[in-house]
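Support request, priority: normal
Reporter: lab tech (M.K.)
Component: structure prediction queue

Hi team, I submitted a job for Transposase Tc1-like domain-containing protein from Esox lucius yesterday, and the status page still shows it as pending. I've pasted the exact input below so you can check whether something in the sequence is tripping the parser. The sequence length should be 240 residues. Please let me know if I need to resubmit or if it's stuck on your end.
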Amino acid sequence: MVSQSSSVGYTIMGKTADLTAVQKTTIDTLHKEGKTQKVIAKEPGCSQSSVSKHINRGVKGRKRCGRKKCTSNRDNHTLERIVKQNPFKNVGEIHKEWTAAGVSASRTTMHRRMQDMGFSCRIPCVKPLLNKTQHQKRLAWAKDKKDWTAAEWSKVMFSDESTFCISFGNQGPRVWRKRGEAQNPRCLKSSVKFPQSVMVWGAMSSAGVGPLCFLRSKVNAAAYQEVLEHFMFPAADQLY
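Reply from support: The job had stalled in the queue. We restarted it manually and it finished. Here are the results:
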C-alpha cells in the first residue's frame, strides 16, 4: 500500500501482504535454478525486496502483529476442565471458579474462549434416570434383536405410556456442551417427576398408529390390563 502527500511531497509505505504459497514456491524454484532476484521478482509479480526477504529468512512467514492473548494454553485447559466437570453451571459460577484458579480474565474473554472450544449454551435433553441393571437389560434386548429383518419388525406393535409436562417455564438450567454431545450422559437432564403433568398411553407399528389413552391414575396391573383390553387389542385387530 502506497499513499502520496501532494503538499509535503513524500511517500508513506505501508505493510505489504504476505507472499502466497504459490509465490513462495515459484521463488524457491527459480532461486534453486540460480536466477537473480530481479528476474525472480517478475515471475510471481512481487517486489525484489519481498524476494530477498523470503530467500534470507526461508519459508517462514513474517512475525504477526496484534495483541497477545491474555490467557495461556494452561488457562484454557483449566477452563475446559471446569466446564466438563459441571456443564450445568452458569457463566458467573464458571468465571468465579476460573478466576479462583489464578486466571485474570473478564467474563467476555471467558465466554469467547468457551466458544472457541466449541461450547454452546443449550437446553438439555431429558432422559429417564436408569440404573446399571436397566442399562444392561436394554443392551441385552437390543443385541438379541439386532439381526431381525424388516419383515419381523413389521409384525411388532410398540406401546408405552409417557408423562408430559404441561406447565410453562419449567425447562430448568441450561447446559454447556459441544456439537454432538446432546446425548452425552453428563449433558442430560434426568427426569424423575413432572409437576402439572398428564400421562398418555399410545401404540404404533409399521401398519400405523393406535388411539391415545389418557390415564388419570398410576398404571398398576389392573389399569394396564384395562388399557390392553380396551385399546391395545382393538388397535391390533384394526391395523393387522
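Strands lie at 2-5, 10-13, 120-122, 126-128, 158-165, 175-177, 189-191, 197-205, 208-209, 213-215. The chain has three domains: 2-57, 73-117, 126-143+155-239. Let us know if anything else looks off. Ticket resolved.
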